[in-house]
Design brief:
Layout (H helix, E strand, L loop, with lengths): L1 H14 L14 H11 L3 H14 L11 E11 L8 H15 L23 E5 L12 E5 L34 E6 L12 E2 L21 E4 L11 E3 L2 E3 L4 H10 L69 H14 L4 E2 L14 E4 L6 E6 L7 E5 L5 E6 L4 E5 L6 E9 L2 E9 L2
Parallel strand pairs: 1-2, 1-3, 1-4, 4-6
Antiparallel strand pairs: 1-9, 5-6, 7-8, 10-11, 11-14, 12-13, 12-15, 15-16
Bound molecules: calcium ion (CA) (2 copies) and zinc ion.
The site of zinc ion (ZN) has 5 residues, from helix 5.
Length: 438
């Protein structure tokens, strides 16, 4: 990776600006970041591999639990140019994509080929919520904005790793307490005069007993994302060599997979010996380079009695974001186990413990309590683009998309009780209680 980028830059200096094909973008530098971590914490990589044995060795680790886990997220927007200062609506959209993909609520999950039916992932019951209280206890919308004089956080000597963005002293912003918040930095880490080379990275928690996410040495804990690929409604595009990279918000889905311990589906090897540690993901000889080639079956293995084709639909592949739509069952069980056992303070289990979002927008919810139906209207006249209804267990039970400033929700089929209603507008996300009585 380091050699590749260096030679790319050298080529550009020697021969003028080369065409950077979109296929040549290294989608993820997590494996390089893991090796950098190994240098300051010998044994780190082995400990992350041990996580898989630890997970599989105790059957109850895989036990399904209905408990919803709500991860506190802070998104740090670090920008130099105006287009890098992504709107709140882009952040909200990305959070929605995370919840859809980790909840298997994504509409394109139906595109997963039937051959993978025996290993198809379920709803992880992990949900991502922007923090509403910062580390000092002040109200926040979970988004920080930092203007920087740094035009790119790309580090030529560091395998594309952009650790500078994680430090105020180096033009970025210091993390919020990494044992309590999933920190996501969104920035520009393009190679000067060439363009984006790495779209994101994150490293798994170590299985070491002295694992400290707040450690100041090595790779600082959290996720880094190249600004054009954050949010499916991002107005910026990566276009190089006549090819446009189509972003669907799946780079953060992939990187959070690493943050929760997952490895690349092909096991970071170029032969069938590569192993991602997960038993129900088929092996592959190499990454899918942004393609959606469903004809590939590069390695023979037997999962659920069959030799499955390469799983280009998997979020942990390098396939195009338009054909990614699934985790497997074991990947889902594994990330839940990692979250509970290795990052135990980063989530809350009670949706009711999460304060309602206030003062972002005034909505009228009438009648409340509702019987047959309820009408929600946005008092300032802006469009309500989506309404989601959750029960007190935090399960999303209804999603309704919309194009007007008001929306009617049928409640006659809902059981009597308390619900949480979430309203998305192009500029805000708000939550409120809804009571249903019959
Ligand atoms: Ca596997
Ligand atoms: Ca196969
Ligand atoms: Zn990756």
């Amino acid at each position: 990776m380091k050699i590749k980028l260096t030679s790319l830059l050298f080529l550009s200096m020697a021969f003028g600006m080369p065409k950077l094909e979109a296929q040549n973008i290294q989608k993820c530098a997590s494996f390089d970041a893991m090796h950098l971590q190994e240098q300051v914490q010998p044994g780190y990589i082995q400990s992350t591999q041990n996580l898989f044995q630890d997970f599989y060795s105790i059957p109850s680790n895989r036990a399904a639990s209905d408990t919803f886990l709500y991860v506190r997220v802070v998104v740090h927007i670090v920008y130099n140019k105006p287009e890098e200062n992504l709107a709140d609506s882009v952040v909200y959209n990305q959070i929605q994509v995370l919840n859809e993909d980790y909840g298997r609520l994504n509409p394109d999950s139906v595109n997963l080929r039937p051959v993978f039916q025996p290993v198809t992932g379920v709803d992880s019951r992990i949900r991502f919520l922007l923090a509403d209280t910062d580390p000092q206890g002040n109200p926040t919308n979970g988004i920080t904005r930092t203007q920087t004089s740094t035009t790119s956080f790309f580090n030529l000597g560091g395998s594309g790793i952009a650790e500078g963005v994680k430090s105020t002293a180096s033009g970025g912003i210091d993390p919020w307490d990494q044992s309590r918040f999933l920190n996501i930095w969104v920035c520009n880490m393009s190679i000067p005069f060439i363009g984006p080379a790495v779209l994101g990275y994150a490293i798994p928690p170590a299985g070491l007993p002295n694992w400290d996410p707040n450690s100041t040495t090595g790779i600082s804990d959290g996720v880094v994302i190249q600004f054009q690929v954050f949010g499916a409604n991002n107005p910026n595009i990566i276009s190089a060599g006549g090819t446009t990279y189509i972003a669907r918000g799946r780079t953060p889905v992939h990187e959070i997979g690493h943050y929760l311990g997952l490895r690349h589906i092909w096991g970071d090897a170029t032969n069938c010996a590569g192993n991602d540690g997960i038993l129900d993901t088929p092996r592959a000889t190499d990454k899918s380079n942004s393609d959606c080639d469903a004809s590939k079956n590069t390695c023979v293995d037997t999962i659920a009695g069959i030799d499955m084709p390469d799983m280009i639909e998997n979020y942990m592949d390098y396939s195009a974001e338009t054909c990614q739509n699934s985790f497997t069952k074991d990947q889902i069980d594994f990330v839940r186990w990692v979250l509970r056992s290795k990052r135990p303070d980063i989530f809350t289990v009670s949706f009711t413990g999460i304060p309602e979002l206030k003062n972002q927008h005034a909505f009228s919810i009438w009648p409340n309590p509702a019987n047959e139906s309820v009408t929600i209207s946005n008092d300032n006249g802006d469009v309500i683009s989506e309404v989601a209804l959750y029960n007190t267990a935090g399960q999303r039970i209804l999603t309704q998309r919309n194009h007007k400033s008001d929306i009617l929700i049928q409640t006659s089929q809902l059981k009597q009780g308390i619900y949480y209603i979430e309203m998305l507008t192009p500029n805000s996300v708000s939550r409120s209680k809804l009571f249903v009585t019959h």
